[in-house]
């Protein structure tokens, strides 16, 4: 029997009530519910779930957390259960600075680091602090849909910069600048990008920093998946190479657990200071208990072993996804084979993947259609698959079902649509 849990296709549009929509702010026009639909599937049952970037629950460090919570409640309740400073508890900021120094070879100076409530909080604080209506923001095309919606709330002009197998096309960004369109900022996910799974190569990293420094473009570097590479390869982060022109935003949602809703922003002190002011006027502070949990987890030396477990599990699932796609997806479908992170990005020429999501959901498979990941020119024949939470047998079966749904959609498509490139 098909599951009755919510699906990403039916949850895309908000409910229309009796006239209150006319009272909404103008900037909400065109807003959709894609993120709502994805999160609604977080605990869905009876579905092979390739939708959200959900960490595998079996990796949550529950035993270690139990001991840490017991200790905090008995020895540190006055701090762990209290409000926190808007820039974060000082000892937690020190622990994260130590972590960055170990992981990146670069340590934020005083005033260059703050605690955020995850990556999307950082995006919102940046947009609130830096964007006036009409300002230009460059983003990868495609890019994280939460960043697109977070920026658009403050009415900038978004320009998508294309990607290829080597990541962001820096020459395309340079061409945009040569046409007189100079972004105030550029948002990029250099490693195992959401949604494409692609990684920015070393040559382009250097070129990107040089280009943005020359034109005073702030690079927003989102490192949500940086520590989740499958193999022993790691390129220098943009922030470690150029802390003067890069604001790095990170999250512990993927590597610790998402319920803690905790991350960081590290970059130029005058920007971080304004983000702190913006946070005072949004959620005021990130939760103190979560901060102290992360701090104690880092101080206890638990993260390296945690990352090893995560990399091994996600590598196995990523490789299983690649094999299943090769086995079951009908050509001319194409897809990326990531070397880390959670996602594979699939193109199915001639098929509208919003319609395909409905058909797949009828056979208890969920994925995210690709159109909301595009900032300007939405393309409707892409979809994102997340393998992070799916068990190995589910991956093969789910992709087999998806392949059959694609076959049916292509046979049903008008001939003119079927040949669309």
UniProtKB/TrEMBL annotation:
Keywords: Aminotransferase, Pyridoxal phosphate, Transferase. The keyword Transferase applies. It comes from the Bacteria. It comes from Jatrophihabitans lederbergiae. InterPro entries: Aminotransferase_I/II_large, Class-I_PLP-dep_aminotransf, PyrdxlP-dep_Trfase, PyrdxlP-dep_Trfase_major, PyrdxlP-dep_Trfase_small. This is PLP-dependent aminotransferase family protein. Its cofactor is pyridoxal 5'-phosphate. Residues 76-401 form the Aminotransferase class I/classII large domain. CDD domains: AAT_like. GO terms for molecular function: transaminase activity. Pfam families: Aminotran_1_2 (PF00155).
């Amino acid at each position: 029997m098909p599951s009755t849990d919510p699906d990403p296709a039916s949850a895309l549009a908000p409910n229309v009530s009796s006239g209150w929509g006319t009272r909404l702010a103008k900037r909400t026009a065109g807003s959709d519910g894609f993120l709502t639909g994805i999160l609604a599937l977080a605990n869905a049952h009876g579905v092979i779930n390739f939708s959200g970037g959900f960490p595998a629950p079996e990796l949550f460090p529950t035993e270690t957390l139990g001991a840490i919570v017991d200790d905090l409640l008995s020895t540190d309740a006055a701090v762990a259960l209290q409000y926190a400073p808007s820039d974060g508890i000082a000892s937690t900021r020190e622990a994260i600075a130590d972590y960055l120094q170990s992981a990146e070879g670069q340590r934020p100076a005083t005033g260059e680091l703050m605690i955020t409530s995850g990556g999307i909080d950082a995006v919102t604080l940046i947009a609130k602090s830096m964007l006036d209506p009409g300002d230009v923001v460059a983003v990868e095309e495609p890019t994280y849909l939460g960043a697109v919606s977070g920026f658009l709330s403050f009415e900038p002009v978004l320009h998508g910069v294309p990607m290829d197998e080597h990541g962001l096309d820096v020459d395309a960004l340079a061409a945009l600048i040569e046409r007189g369109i100079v972004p105030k900022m550029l948002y990029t996910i250099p490693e195992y990008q959401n949604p494409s799974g692609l990684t920015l190569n070393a040559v382009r990293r250097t070129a990107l920093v040089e280009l943005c420094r020359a034109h005073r473009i702030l690079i927003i570097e989102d490192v949500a998946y940086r520590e989740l590479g499958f193999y022993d390869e790691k390129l220098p982060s943009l922030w470690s190479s150029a802390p003067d022109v890069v604001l790095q935003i990170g999250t512990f949602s993927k590597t610790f657990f998402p319920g803690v809703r905790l991350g960081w922003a590290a970059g130029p002190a005058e920007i971080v200071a304004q983000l702190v002011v913006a946070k005072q006027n949004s959620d005021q502070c990130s939760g103190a208990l979560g901060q102290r949990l992360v701090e104690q987890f880092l101080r206890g030396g638990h993260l390296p072993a945690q990352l090893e477990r995560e990399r091994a599990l996600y590598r196995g699932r990523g490789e299983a996804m690649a094999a299943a796609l090769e086995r079951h997806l009908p050509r001319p479908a194409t897809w990326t084979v990531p070397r880390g992170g959670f996602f594979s990005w699939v193109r199915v020429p001639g098929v509208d993947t919003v319609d395909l999501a409905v058909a797949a959901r009828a056979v208890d498979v969920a994925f995210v259609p690709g159109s909301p990941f595009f900032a300007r020119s939405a393309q409707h024949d892409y979809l994102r698959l997340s393998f992070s939470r799916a068990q190995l047998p589910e991956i093969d079966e789910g992709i087999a079902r998806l392949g059959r749904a694609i076959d049916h959609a292509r046979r049903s498509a008008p001939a003119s649509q079927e040949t669309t490139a």
